[in-house]
Amino acid sequence: MTDREKSVVAGRRPGERACPRCGAVFVCGNEAGAQSCWCAELPPALPIPGAGSGCYCPACLREIIAQQDQAGRKS
Asked: Which InterPro entries does the UniProt entry name for this protein (predicted)?
């Protein structure tokens, strides 16, 4: 059974994930079958996680990028 099929059986939307930082539920576009994910529109900040690893929700990823940007300006 594919990850997409497992999601449907579990009652979740395809690509639905929980943020490892805050627990918010969001959809990964790549896993949902979209051409790309919402995160591809943001500046690169972290390595792209491998299959099955945690992605951050939009709010947390934006916050991490802002923190990295601030840290880079202080250097």
From this structure: Cys_rich_CWC (IPR032720)
